[in-house]
Design brief:
The chain is α+β, with helices and mostly antiparallel strands and 308 residues long. It has one domain: outer membrane lipoprotein receptor (LolB), chain A (Clam), CATH 2.50.20. Helix content is 20%, strand content 39%. The chain has a 12-stranded antiparallel sheet with strand order 5-4-3-2-1-12-11-10-9-8-7-6. A hairpin with a 4-residue loop joins strand 4 and strand 5. The N terminus is likely disordered.
Length: 308
């Protein structure tokens, strides 16, 4: 009888605990995601000791929509604390590449074409420079990555639940800079490894009436066979009512994580840029970079981060 009573009590206890166990298994806290992510890069002493980084690699530029073409080049990402430079260089043709610089506060985006225009993506970053000022562009490949310095950056982070992207379930964390920004920013993390695998930036501009002849959307030079041509600058009152909103989407994808000297970083980095203008014209561009060498705590020339 005592054995049966003991067994019955055990069953009652297990049943009572099951809901709590289930909640603990599914409940995710923002702090746990951030802590897990930071540990996925390196242990705290190693992260603290890492002051600068150089990432060298090969890159391929593709015009997927709005033109055609593929070209191969080289990529270099250098960073020192909050300062960073991302440089993708191509040897021939009208498109020379991208060079983004942030000295920790001010930014500089170089022109990309023979006509001294910025590319679609370069112009977007120029107007939405929060990508550089916050250290978001390049993800954990740079020492400027803002999640390494939350106390200094003071962004507003919110856990938005899980989201399935390309068949994978990811943690979705919304990032709002301390200073307001037009662009919406979401960071995505692998639930098992806590690696940061994706950042998505989106911006939508509603069609409005043009006042005083001023354009109501970004004016962006086209790429891929039409480089240097200005996108439609706006419309008069009769045209605006028939136009759709202008949409921009930037995706940074990170994969092929490798650990060297206690630091785990992605060795594959893709920038995917989509622009949909009010006129209905679309441009989709890709920069696909593979790291060939990553160096830590390198002494860097201050001119790498000089903003003119």
């Amino acid at each position: 009888m005592s054995r049966m009573l003991s067994f019955a009590l055990s069953v009652v206890v297990v049943v009572a605990l099951c809901p709590a166990i289930g909640m603990a298994a599914t409940e995710v806290k923002l702090d746990d995601i951030i802590a897990g992510h930071l540990d996925s890069i390196a242990k705290a002493p190693t992260r603290t000791a890492t002051k600068s980084r150089v990432v060298e690699g090969t890159t391929q530029f593709k015009v997927l929509t709005g033109g055609a073409g593929t070209t191969d080049g080289k990529a270099v990402i250098v960073s020192d604390d909050r300062k960073l430079q991302l440089n993708m260089k191509f040897p021939s043709g009208n498109y020379h590449g991208e060079r983004f610089i942030c000295d920790g506060s001010k930014v500089q985006i170089a022109t990309s074409t023979d006509a001294q225009n910025r590319s679609n993506f370069g112009q977007f970053v120029y107007l939405q420079d929060v990508l550089l000022r916050e250290g978001l562009l390049g993800g954990v490949l740079t020492t400027a990555w803002p999640l390494l310095d939350l106390d200094g950056r003071k962004p507003k982070l919110s856990y938005e639940g899980t989201k399935t992207i390309d068949g994978k379930t990811l943690y979705d964390v919304r990032y709002k800079p301390k200073k307001s920004a037009d662009v919406e920013i979401h960071l995505y993390f692998d639930p098992e490894s806590f690696h940061h695998v994706l950042t998505v930036y989106t911006l939508r501009i509603q069609p409005q009436l043009v006042q005083g002849g001023q354009a109501n959307s970004l004016s962006v030079p086209e790429m891929g066979g039409t480089a240097g041509i200005q996108a439609p600058a706006g419309a008069d009152a009769s045209q605006a009512s028939g136009q759709q909103e202008t949409r921009y989407r930037v995706e940074e994808r990170f994969s092929d994580f490798k650990t060297v000297d206690g630091i785990t970083l992605p060795n594959h980095y893709v920038i995917h840029f989509t622009q949909e203008l009010q006129s209905g014209r679309s441009t989709i561009l890709d920069w696909d970079t593979t790291a060939t060498r990553i160096l830590e705590n390198v002494t860097l020339d201050p001119r790498n981060f000089q903003v003119k």
